[in-house]
Specification:
About 30% of the residues lie in helices and about 20% in strands. By secondary structure, it is an alpha/beta fold. The chain has two domains: about 10-145 and about 345-490, FAD/NAD(P)-binding domain (3-Layer(bba) Sandwich), CATH 3.50.50.60; about 155-210 and about 270-340, 3-Layer(bba) Sandwich (FAD/NAD(P)-binding domain). Strand 13 and strand 14 (about 325) form a beta hairpin. Helix 1 runs parallel beside helix 11 (about 400-420), helix 5 crosses helix 6 and helix 11 (about 400-420) runs parallel beside helix 14. InterPro entries: FAD-bind_Monooxygenase_sf (IPR051209), FAD/NAD-bd_sf (IPR036188). It holds the Pfam family Pyr_redox_3.
Length: about 500
């Protein structure tokens, strides 16, 4: 790991990667494999880890089986459970960073303030809190799940107790015997609420929208199974293929609300069998088709909500007066601690506020709430800038499916540029519009758009800027090779020197 020096002059590298999660680490590994070594990776925190460094709440674990939630080229036979816990996933990432000798390329404690394309220097100018860097190419691998959404609730800043977001868990606070209110019932809440319910005095859950919950097939993986995966790796590859097939089937079903209504019967059975209290059961019954929101899995969520010290208020929190919390339906409760399980900025990537195109406009200003790009990877007027988890590449499967679809495309683009003396690559505006019109047309009949809910797949303008409407096979096929004919290309002038900012 290289120490950053605030007093350094601007430092040039061929490529700058922004973000030290699985996407950024994967980009670094694939660049090295392609024989490209002049790159650095900028990470704002003190260690690598991405979302698995940020989220340390009790019960934090993957909701995709670990056999699929890992690099295909780096299976891990040592997972302790079918769905790996947070600490194991973070260790997996950091171990791989060391195995592939990526840390010498990494600048920790280096937060990107802005990344600006300069037509004058034909480089990205990247300002950080540790000085300035310049690069011909940038790979923005920041991920969508690291900037928490903080609700705008009247009086919440005057709350007389303690308040924190689930992704910034206060491990110094003892919840034992406290009156705790949780705002939100999404993926994080269904994991930590069953963990804290037995120790708190009173738990009040503010549920704006009920969620469909599937049973979770989570079991321990004993040593003999781990040994089998280690010494017969084909067995783990076969398991990965089977899990991928299940998720691909679900992903295909999401294109049909009618199909998802049939799949929903499993979640309805789970609810009916687990919650005996009829009044509570109706509170917890969603009014939209499963898949419209992120599909959640848990075996202990419903049992936790059925306990005597838990109250579910089927209404959003509207106002806070001292330690009194008032819901939109008029319900009131008192709390010592508020935990915000209000999710992350998904439809509007936080990095968009910090990336500026050749005209000096931020991505966020150009998008106006509705992100749009080309093949989810490049954006108009941002030459040589590649975006991981860009617009309309999200699938209901493992994030690694997206990462390993995008990385060959990005690395192929950079390798072709180096081999052919190309100075800049940017998407052709003539192709961007029809590409996005085709995606939006395909999304119109999916459960995300027609399932009857408001989810993070839909942006503030009501447009689905997030989901990929087809199979992941088609996504991987589309990104298999970077076709220069679809882009605007400028070649390096003959005998010219590369301009490097000083």
């Amino acid at each position: 790991m290289i120490d950053s020096n605030k007093n350094n002059a601007s430092e040039y590298h061929k490529i700058v990667i922004i973000g030290g999660g699985f996407a950024g680490l994967g980009a670094a590994i694939k660049l090295k494999e392609a024989g490209i070594h002049d790159f650095i990776l900028l990470e704002k925190a003190h260690e690598m880890g991405g979302v698995w460094r940020e989220n340390t709440y009790p019960g934090c674990a993957c909701d995709v089986p670990s056999s699929l939630y890992s690099y295909s080229f780096e299976p891990n036979p040592n997972w302790s459970r079918v769905f790996a816990p947070q600490a194991e996933i973070k260790d997996y990432l950091q171990n791989i960073a060391n195995k592939y000798n990526i840390m010498p390329h990494v600048r920790l404690n280096t937060e990107v303030i802005s990344a600006r394309w300069s037509d004058e220097t034909q480089n990205w100018l990247i300002e950080t809190d540790q000085g300035e860097f310049t690069a011909q190419f940038s790979i923005m691998a920041c991920g969508p799940m690291h900037e928490p959404v903080l609700p705008n609730i009247k009086g919440i800043d005057q709350f007389s107790g303690q308040i924190f977001h689930s992704s910034q868990w206060r491990h110094d606070l003892d919840l034992t015997g406290k009156r705790v209110a949780v705002i939100g019932t999404g993926a994080s809440a269904i994991q930590f609420i069953p963990q804290i319910q037995p120790i708190v005095k009173q738990l009040t859950v503010f549920q704006r929208t009920a969620q469909w919950i599937l049973p979770k097939s989570d079991i321990n993986l004993p040593k003999p199974i781990q040994a089998l995966f280690k010494y017969l790796p084909l067995t783990q590859r076969l398991l990965r293929g089977g899990v991928y097939g299940v998720f691909e089937s679900i992903n295909g079903g999401l294109q049909s609300p009618a199909a998802m209504k049939q799949f929903q019967k499993l979640a309805e059975l789970h609810l009916n069998l687990t919650i005996k209290d009829k009044k509570l059961r109706e509170k917890l019954r969603p009014n939209f088709i499963i898949g419209c929101k992120r599909i959640l899995q848990s075996n202990n969520w419903y049992p936790a909500l059925a306990q005597n010290n838990v109250e579910v208020i089927a209404s959003a929190l509207a106002e806070v007066q001292g330690n009194i919390l008032i819901a939109e339906d008029g319900s009131q409760t008192e709390a010592d601690i508020i935990i915000l399980a209000t999710g992350f900025e998904i439809a509007e990537p936080p990095i968009a506020k910090r990336v500026y195109n050749r005209f000096g406009q931020s991505m966020a200003d150009v998008w106006q709430g509705s992100p749009e790009g080309y093949k989810g990877t490049m954006v108009e007027a941002c030459p040589n800038g590649f975006l991981m988890f860009g617009p309309n590449v999200a699938v209901s499967s493992s994030a690694f499916i997206i990462i390993e679809a995008q990385l060959p495309y990005i690395v192929d683009a950079i390798k072709q540029a180096i081999d052919q003396g190309i100075q800049t690559i940017e998407p052709d505006p003539k192709l961007i519009k029809p590409y996005n019109e085709k995606i939006q047309a395909a999304l119109q009949h999916t459960v995300w758009n027609k399932g009857g809910c408001q989810s993070y797949f839909l942006d503030r303008n009501g447009r689905n800027s997030t989901a990929w409407p087809w199979t992941t096979f088609k996504l991987k096929q589309q990104l298999k090779r970077f076709n220069l004919n679809e882009y605007l290309i400028d070649y390096v002038p003959e005998n010219s020197q590369k301009i490097k900012s000083q």
